């Protein structure tokens, strides 16, 4: 058992890289007599089928922050962190039924574009700048940092060089091909992601059981660390501040999920590129089912690593490799890279390819959406309103390259943070409550006015920061901060709207009809199946 890569690991990984680059560049090529236009580059010509949408949603979502960060949180606090994944499945159903019909009917390229149609150009610009800052300085930078950490741990390559390598890999096909290259390579990335993740889960559980198999390993993990299998944490738990008990189900996590899956450009963009609304909803349903199994791939290995590290007999059997980069409570994010060291030759390459797939697919998605927002909502709005398709596509590529360069510079500065998944959620949570409040009221409350929405979005930031830094114990869990910020922002918007419109409907209000929200029998049956499975899972692990 060795910590390093051997020849077959390199062969597998290089084959994966060639496959992804080859497919990405092939689907990116200009068809005979047709030059890429904005719809081709930013919305994949609105031609994505449901299975490409579903898999691309998961590939965009599952990144280093899940493989590394969520496994680290599994090591530190247990299965409770899986609430993000399982509640996301239910959130996807809500998005598919109530948000997508409106977005697709409006023919949107970007989420800020909806804000312009419902409210104003000024509010669109404010939110576009919010998103650009968030994507570059939090999302892109943290994914690069975590990916660099993994490569440094597994292969011994200096983190800076690892970060640059990941950035160049993602840029190689996504900058040229746009959303088509991102979405179609995501289909392949998900295969590597799930299979490679399951290989690591199998190894961890089989090692815990002493070679007696996965089921025996899972039983031993549950028996050895029962405290790691409670979805609802007690107030006495040290991690209650991150996952505050029952409030995870009825409080702030809904803010995080509805914002992320409903109004986050790099997620929702692939649903806007669907052939039709029904095709998009089928893709959402596939993604919801995939979310149910993701904790097996990203959380269970972290819990298994916790059991391994705390069992002297298992550690003795791991030899010298087992003593390299051992995860601890203070450095929980080392759990997943540490496990990869023990995979057999060849499978180590597969598992590493899965990790790379998760990182690169998310980077590519974020880059494409960052360039879409900058190009469509800022460049074409303020710099060159008459830009032709060639100019628009080129600006998209250049802006993505600049965003990536900034993120590469920022990423190493994130060194030293623990449980990076929680870090990302916490700091996204400063921005997301205000955005969610604006969208929910803008979609479903006809009295919402533009001025009220602008003031709500602006004031939500100081409210969130005040709740974050005020020494008030009840506000300490950041999920509470998100929930309270959302409610206060909605209250501000409602009061100001009523003062301005004197109770009348806003002229730009969206007309809503029952017909708009009708869904197919397949979507309805699938949705009920997801809810039943969730009920069973929470009953088992309450």
From TrEMBL:
<feature type="transmembrane region" description="Helical">
    <location>
        <begin position="125"/>
        <end position="147"/>
    </location>
</feature>
<keyword id="KW-0812">Transmembrane</keyword>
<feature type="transmembrane region" description="Helical">
    <location>
        <begin position="427"/>
        <end position="445"/>
    </location>
</feature>
<feature type="transmembrane region" description="Helical">
    <location>
        <begin position="478"/>
        <end position="499"/>
    </location>
</feature>
<feature type="transmembrane region" description="Helical">
    <location>
        <begin position="520"/>
        <end position="541"/>
    </location>
</feature>
<feature type="transmembrane region" description="Helical">
    <location>
        <begin position="395"/>
        <end position="415"/>
    </location>
</feature>
<feature type="transmembrane region" description="Helical">
    <location>
        <begin position="48"/>
        <end position="64"/>
    </location>
</feature>
<comment type="similarity">
    <text>Belongs to the sodium:solute symporter (SSF) (TC 2.A.21) family.</text>
</comment>
<keyword id="KW-1133">Transmembrane helix</keyword>
<feature type="transmembrane region" description="Helical">
    <location>
        <begin position="159"/>
        <end position="176"/>
    </location>
</feature>
<feature type="transmembrane region" description="Helical">
    <location>
        <begin position="350"/>
        <end position="374"/>
    </location>
</feature>
<feature type="transmembrane region" description="Helical">
    <location>
        <begin position="183"/>
        <end position="205"/>
    </location>
</feature>
<protein>
    <submittedName>
        <fullName>Sodium/sugar symporter</fullName>
    </submittedName>
</protein>
<feature type="transmembrane region" description="Helical">
    <location>
        <begin position="284"/>
        <end position="309"/>
    </location>
</feature>
<keyword id="KW-0472">Membrane</keyword>
<dbReference type="InterPro" id="IPR038377">
    <property type="entry name" value="Na/Glc_symporter_sf"/>
</dbReference>
<feature type="transmembrane region" description="Helical">
    <location>
        <begin position="84"/>
        <end position="104"/>
    </location>
</feature>
<dbReference type="Pfam" id="PF00474">
    <property type="entry name" value="SSF"/>
</dbReference>
<dbReference type="InterPro" id="IPR001734">
    <property type="entry name" value="Na/solute_symporter"/>
</dbReference>
<feature type="transmembrane region" description="Helical">
    <location>
        <begin position="7"/>
        <end position="27"/>
    </location>
</feature>
<feature type="transmembrane region" description="Helical">
    <location>
        <begin position="245"/>
        <end position="263"/>
    </location>
</feature>
<feature type="transmembrane region" description="Helical">
    <location>
        <begin position="452"/>
        <end position="472"/>
    </location>
</feature>
């Amino acid at each position: 058992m060795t910590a390093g890569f051997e020849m077959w690991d390199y062969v597998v990984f290089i084959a994966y890289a060639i496959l992804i680059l080859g497919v990405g560049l092939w689907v990116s090529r200009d068809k005979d007599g047709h030059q890429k236009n904005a719809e081709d580059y930013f919305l994949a010509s609105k031609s994505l089928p449901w299975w490409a949408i579903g898999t691309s949603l998961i590939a965009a979502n599952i990144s280093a922050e899940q493989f590394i960060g969520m496994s680290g949180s599994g090591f530190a606090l247990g299965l409770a962190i899986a609430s993000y994944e399982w509640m996301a499945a239910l959130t996807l159903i809500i998005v598919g039924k109530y948000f997508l019909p409106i977005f697709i009917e409006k023919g949107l390229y970007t989420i800020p574009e909806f804000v312009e149609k419902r409210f104003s150009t000024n509010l669109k610009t404010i939110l576009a700048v919010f998103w650009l800052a968030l994507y570059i300085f939090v999302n892109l930078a943290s994914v690069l940092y975590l990916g660099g950490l993994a490569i440094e741990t597994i292969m011994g390559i200096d983190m800076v060089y690892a970060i640059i390598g990941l950035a160049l890999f993602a840029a190689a096909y996504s900058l040229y091909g746009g959303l088509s290259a991102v979405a179609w390579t995501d289909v392949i990335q998900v295969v590597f992601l799930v299979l490679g993740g399951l290989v690591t889960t199998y190894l961890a559980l089989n090692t815990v059981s002493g070679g007696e198999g996965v089921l025996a390993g899972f039983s031993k993990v549950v028996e050895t660390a029962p405290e790691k299998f409670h979805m609802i944490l007690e107030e006495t738990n040290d991690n209650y501040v991150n996952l505050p008990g029952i409030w995870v189900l009825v409080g702030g996590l809904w803010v995080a999920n509805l914002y992320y899956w409903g109004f986050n450009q790099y997620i929702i963009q692939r649903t806007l590129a669907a052939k039709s609304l029904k095709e998009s909803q089928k893709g959402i349903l596939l993604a919801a089912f995939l979310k149910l199994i993701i904790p097996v791939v990203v959380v269970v290995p972290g819990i298994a690593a916790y059991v391994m590290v705390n069992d002297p007999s298992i550690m003795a059997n791991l030899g010298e490799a087992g003593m390299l980069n051992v995860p601890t409570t203070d450095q929980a994010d080392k759990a997943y890279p540490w496990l990869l060291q023990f995979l057999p030759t060849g499978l180590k390459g597969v598992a590493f390819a899965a990790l790379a797939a998760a990182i690169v697919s998310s980077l590519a998605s974020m880059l494409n959406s960052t360039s879409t927002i900058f190009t469509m909502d800022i460049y074409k709005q303020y710099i060159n309103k008459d830009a032709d398709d060639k100019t628009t596509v080129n600006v998209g590529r250049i802006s993505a390259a600049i965003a990536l360069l900034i993120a590469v510079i920022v990423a190493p500065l994130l060194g030293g943070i623990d449980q990076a998944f929680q870090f990302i959620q916490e700091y996204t949570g400063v921005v997301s409550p205000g955005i969610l409040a604006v969208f929910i009221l803008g979609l479903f409350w006809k009295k919402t006015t533009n001025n009220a929405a602008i003031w709500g979005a602006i004031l939500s930031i100081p409210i969130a920061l005040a709740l974050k830094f005020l020494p008030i114990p009840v506000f300490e869990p950041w999920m509470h901060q998100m929930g309270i910020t959302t409610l206060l922002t909605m209250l501000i918007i409602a009061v100001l709207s009523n003062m301005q419109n004197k109770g009348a409907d806003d002229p730009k209000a969206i007309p809503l009809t029952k017909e708009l929200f009708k869904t197919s029998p397949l979507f309805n049956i699938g949705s009920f199946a997801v809810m039943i499975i969730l009920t069973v899972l929470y009953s088992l692990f309450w």
